[in-house]
Design goal:
The complex is a heterotrimer of chains A (328), B (375) and C (372). By secondary structure, chain A is an alpha/beta fold. Chain A is built from twelve helices and 14 strands. Chain A has a six-stranded mixed sheet with strand order 6-7-8-3-9-10, sandwiched between helices. In chain A, α3 runs parallel beside α5. The termini of chain A are far apart. In chain C, α3 links the parallel β1 and β2. Helices cover 66% and strands 9% of the residues of chain C. Chain C is elongated, with a radius of gyration of 28 Å. Classes of the chains: A alpha/beta (328), B alpha/beta (375), C alpha/beta (372). At the B-C interface, α2, α4, β4, α6 and β5 of B face α2, α4, β4, α6 and β5 of C.
């Protein structure tokens, strides 16, 4: 079947903006009295994998939507690949790809039809479409499944097809809103390999996630909490905020109650569960001063194992959020 | 039992959390109840009427006044010639034109018949039919009065004007209250619409969302799941019947002459039919969209159209009359009307009750087996 | 706006429609079923009413009364009760909708030129039937009266001689009233229901959001969404028109241009309503309920089924707010009477105001918060 309404490619050369892919100044969004995004500044360089992190409801998706032009900002400005999101929204849309956690495919269209549809939307030529289609099918491991209905695909396939549709026009910047939620670890790993490959081709990736292990794949991170960016930098820089702190990892029989007990300890700043293990942050206090084993024993807990660990990103964010909570 | 209750509670939470659904379940019946009771009927009043009086005498004016005062006709313009008639009809400013022939007054005075022509716009068949009937009847009455007064004036005995009259009685609803016609029927229509639609919807929706599979892997058995899902709707159906009946009786003062027990039993049978139809649709429909459309076609249209709710079954073509037997609404309609207005008991209603029982058993059995096999 | 993108969206919409196995047949069976229902049920004239006859006179005259009822074709004798109690049973059990009770002595009264009365009992539990049955029976009895009691000379010609003439629909077939109205009604159903469902479905699946980060403008999207359903609606309208004229033999005296123009204008309003419904609803079920809530009053208060002349004043004024009311006048008048634009301009004007207002309201809200 030949695509009946081919058109010339519309995508224009990306405007040069000094190597900056995303440049956000004072971006703000309010819904009534509620401030969803509070005067955010961001700069993302070309070719970076930029991780945008934060708990649910912190303003991640709202920010992405403003940057993609689906909702209007209340204040501030942003330039995407050199184009202003307010005045040059059409240009912005031609130069970005977007993939949401819903893997927004038309479930009642086949794999091929979905690809054709998006190719048509972005005005790919026939030759270009054939080339991109072959590439995406291979990339997504969907060869031989072109005529299957999308709703019958497994989640991992859907995810990769959604990425294929979002990048069919070879955008230089891709927004990914929780692209790996609900996908099994193996598929997640494969997906990140695809993202790394894209990045190696010079594509800028703006990714939100709440998997901390994924955040380590990023070149740079920003952490948004209640509409404010509370930390920004490379993963190493963010972790180094805690480098002077003492972090202990504890294995104990009844983790939940032990955590509650430990948080009463005067020297314990923060603590949280990580799987069946307990992580606590003693701040600048030393492990010997705190005498956690003795404290737990007195409280009647059976200590199985305790060791000091290097701070992880997760420790860093718990710390940052804790500081915000203390401030609020 | 506990598992069924868990499902039921979940369904109820769905209903209560959804204000729009509550609107559909509660407000729709009330709006319809008030509209049908206060406003809607096929009767016509205030038909826009034009007059074309070629006579222009006291008598012709009296005659036209009599029409106006009947409230059936509202005279809104006076034409001068026939050429205005087409315009009046085509622009829809009038539905009836009363033409009083010249010599109307002198003919009456001389004891001859005065000629009147009544032109009716037939494009609205119902109004036209009633308008024609009312105008002829009013003219007859007016003519009769004139004759009686003339006969008396001439000294004849009015006894010589014998006539065949009718002594009309309207049974069951002598005041002709709209509410009494419609309330018992509305019970049938509303219960069908809400129950079939919602049961059909809940299951298909759950299947689309995948929560259904989630429930299937839990220890709950299919039949328990089915019971749990329909139980809240059975209760909603019962509440609707109670609500409509109570408002009908208390606010609109419609009579309740029959047996409460019989109404309860027949309601239970009918609610089972409606729930069963909903389940059957949900087992067959491929999507929420098609479940909605199917419910409209199978539940709403036949119950509204073929149950005798507003349109008499006996006037339909035989094929549709035959089709109407296939929908349980028809039987329940007779039952509610008879119980409310006529006070008839099982001795007259046994054929309908029997039919309803057969339907309920068949539909529920069918639904349960389809459900086991497909869902 | 890009015509290529719009074509792409239309192609997508039809492909999706084709995939929904139960939806497509419904779209085309629906107009047929509605035609049958409204043509044969709403459009059926009241006749063959079941009559119970209690004849206590058993004379030539009483037989003449029964014959007069039967030969009118409005009534068929369904029961012959022998006494009051049986008559009551016949009405109670619904074997008869109307009963005539011919008293003993009718023949004597007629012979002696005394007035007589026939008892007529109607089952008031069915409004429409009882109303019409009463009218029919009083007409039949009054002409029988003239036959039974020839007036003495000199008085015979008194009173008012009424001659009625029905314009446009001389046999008063109700189906002639229903078929033109169905053209507008099915348009409303298809565009508001099915279109709002399609938009909400797209939002539920997240594809709407996806589309708005592509170069598709909202106008492109809207046109791509609306045009396929306009196409579907026009096929449905054509089905109704053709079946109505050929099968139901509804005479078409109007102009296709006036009907087409009116329906196009009305479609703007219908699409506007559809857009508003889709914006007010988060899920397809909600959209379905919302359109149900909106459709019910439109169906009942527009004059589609119930004559609005008889409404209480407050309700009568409320009907001016329903665009369906105006298009019904336009299609019915043009179809049956051949009314032209020059007679129908007030309805066109009112509808234009509503359609443009609703459409623009829908459009502006649509642009504002479609993706939220």
């Amino acid at each position: 079947m030949r695509f009946p309404w081919s058109q010339r490619a519309e995508a224009e050369a990306v405007r040069d903006d000094g190597g900056v892919a995303i440049n956000v100044k004072g971006l703000r969004k309010t819904f009534g009295d509620f401030v969803a995004v509070n005067d955010v500044d961001l700069a993302v360089g070309r070719g970076e994998i930029f991780g945008f992190l934060g708990p649910n409801g912190s303003g991640k998706t709202t920010t992405i939507r403003m940057l993609c032009g689906t909702i209007e900002a209340t204040g501030g400005s942003a330039k995407i690949m050199g184009y202003d999101i307010e005045t040059e929204a059409d240009k912005v849309r031609l130069n970005i790809g977007y993939m949401s956690q819903k893997f927004s495919l038309f479930s009642d269209l086949t794999v091929d039809e979905n690809l054709r549809f998006y190719a048509g939307i972005y005005g790919l030529t026939d030759e270009k479409f054939i080339e991109r289609r072959a590439y995406i099918l291979k990339m997504a491991d969907l060869e031989g499944r072109e005529d299957e209905l999308t709703k019958n695909l497994s989640v991992g396939w859907k995810q990769r097809l959604a990425l294929g549709c979002a990048t069919i026009h070879e955008p230089k910047l891709i927004f990914l809103d929780e692209p790996t939620s609900g996908v099994d670890p193996n598929a997640r790993r494969q997906f990140w390999e695809l993202l790394n490959e894209l990045a190696s081709q010079g594509v800028t990736l703006f990714v939100t996630t709440h998997y901390m292990d994924e955040a380590t794949h990023c070149n740079r991170l920003a952490f948004i909490y209640r509409g404010d960016i509370i930390a920004e930098g490379t993963p190493q820089e963010i972790k180094s905020a805690l480098s002077a702190d003492t972090i202990l990892q504890i294995e104990v029989a009844d983790g939940e109650s032990a955590l509650a007990e430990l948080l009463k300890h005067p020297m314990v700043d923060e603590g949280y569960m990580q799987g069946s293990l307990l992580n606590i942050n003693l701040g600048h206090n030393s492990a010997s001063d705190a005498d956690i084993p003795g404290y737990l024993k007195k409280a009647g807990f059976d200590l199985l194992h305790i060791e000091p660990v290097e701070p992880t990103l997760e420790d860093a964010f718990v710390h940052l959020v804790g500081q915000q909570g203390g401030r609020a | 039992m506990r598992r069924i209750w868990a499902i039921t509670r979940k369904e109820f939470i769905h209903v209560i959390r959804d204000p729009r659904l509550l609107m559909v379940i509660l407000a729709m019946p009330l709006i319809q109840l008030f509209l049908y009771s206060y406003a809607l009927s096929f009767d016509v009043k205030h038909l826009p009427t034009a007059t074309l009086d070629f006579d222009r005498t006291t008598q012709s004016r009296q005659y036209l006044d009599a029409l106006q005062q009947s409230n059936y006709f509202t005279i809104n313009q006076r034409l001068d010639s026939y050429s205005g008639v087409d315009k009046a009809f085509e622009s829809n400013s009038d539905k009836v034109v009363v033409v009083v022939g010249s010599g109307f007054g002198s003919n009456l005075a001389a004891g001859r018949a005065g000629n009147v022509q009544i032109l009716v716009d037939g494009s609205d068949a119902n109004s036209a039919q009633l308008g024609r009937g009312y105008s002829s009847a009013l003219s007859r009455v007016y003519g009769g009065k004139v004759v009686v007064s003339q006969v008396e004036a001439k000294g004849f005995s009015t006894g010589s004007l014998a006539s065949l009259g009718s002594n009309t009685r309207v049974w069951y609803n002598p005041e002709g209250k709209s509410a009494a016609y419609y309330v018992p029927g509305l019970i049938v229509v509303l219960v069908t619409t809400v129950l079939v639609l919602q049961t059909a919807n809940t299951l298909v929706k759950e299947r689309e969302m995948g929560t259904y599979e989630q429930l299937l892997v839990s220890p709950i058995r299919k039949i328990e799941l089915m019971l749990g899902k329909i139980a809240p709707w059975a209760l909603v159906g019962a509440l609707q019947i109670i609500l409509i009946s109570t408002i009908g009786i208390v606010v609109f003062q419609i009579p309740f002459r029959g047996s409460l027990l019989l109404l309860t039993v027949s309601s239970l049978l009918y609610v089972s039919c409606a729930l069963g139809m909903g389940l059957i649709i949900s087992a067959r429909a491929s999507s929420v969209d098609s479940a909605n459309q199917l419910a409209g076609l199978i539940a709403f249209l036949p119950t509204f159209m073929l149950s005798g709710f507003v349109f008499p079954i006996s006037s339909m073509p035989w094929a549709l009359q035959a089709v109407s037997y296939a929908f349980p609404g028809r039987y329940f309609m007779v039952i509610t009307r008879t119980i409310f207005l006529k006070g008839g008991g099982l001795e007259v209603l046994w054929p309908q009750m029997l039919a309803l029982t057969i339907f309920a058993v068949t539909i529920i059995t069918l639904a349960a087996s389809m459900y086991r096999e497909r869902a | 706006m890009s015509w290529n993108r719009i074509r792409l969206l239309i192609w997508k919409e039809f492909t999706q429609l084709r995939r929904d196995r139960s939806m497509l047949p419904i779209l085309f069976i629906m107009p047929i079923i509605m035609l049958l229902m409204f043509g044969y049920v709403v459009g059926s004239d009241i006749k063959n009413l079941k009559l119970a006859v209690l004849d206590s006179d058993n004379s030539a005259q009483s037989q003449r009364v029964v014959d007069a009822f039967v030969s009118s074709s409005y009534f068929t004798v369904a029961a012959r009760p022998q006494n009051e109690a049986q008559l009551k049973e016949a009405l109670d059990g619904g074997q008869a909708a109307i009963a005539i009770d011919i008293p003993k002595g009718l023949s004597d009264a007629v012979r002696e030129h005394r007035s007589a009365q026939i008892g007529v009992v109607v089952d008031g539990s069915d409004s429409r039937t009882s109303q019409v049955a009463l009218q029919y029976s009083s007409g039949i009895l009054s002409s029988l009266g003239a036959e039974f009691y020839p007036r003495p000379g000199g008085l015979s010609a008194g009173g008012v001689n009424v001659q009625t003439r029905i314009f446009y629909n001389p046999t008063l077939r109700a189906v002639n009233t229903m078929v033109p109205a169905l053209l507008a009604f099915i348009l409303l159903m298809s565009t508001t229901n099915i279109m709002s469902q399609a938009i909400v479905k797209e939002r539920e699946q997240g594809t709407l959001e996806q589309l708005f980060v592509t170069p598709i403008g909202r106008t492109d999207y809207l046109l791509g969404k609306v045009l396929p359903y306009i196409g579907v609606a026009f096929v449905q309208v054509t089905v109704i028109f053709v079946v109505g004229v050929l099968w139901f033999q509804v005479p078409f005296k109007g102009s296709l241009w006036v009907i087409f123009g009116g329906l196009m204008l009305f479609m703007l309003a219908a699409i506007g309503i559809g857009m508003l419904v889709s914006l007010m609803s988060g899920s397809r079920q909600q959209a379905q309920q919302t359109s149900q809530l909106l459709q019910m009053p439109q169906m009942m208060l527009s004059g589609f089924m119930f004559p609005i002349d008889a409404f209480p004043v407050w309700l009568y004024y409320a009907t001016y707010l329903i665009p369906l009311r105006y298009i019904l006048v336009i299609v019915r008048s043009n179809f049956l009477k051949g009314s032209s634009f020059s007679e129908l301009w007030p309805q066109f004007a009112a509808m234009a105001v509503f359609s443009v207002a609703i459409f623009l309201l829908g459009l502006s809200r649509f642009h504002k918060r479609l993706a939220d």
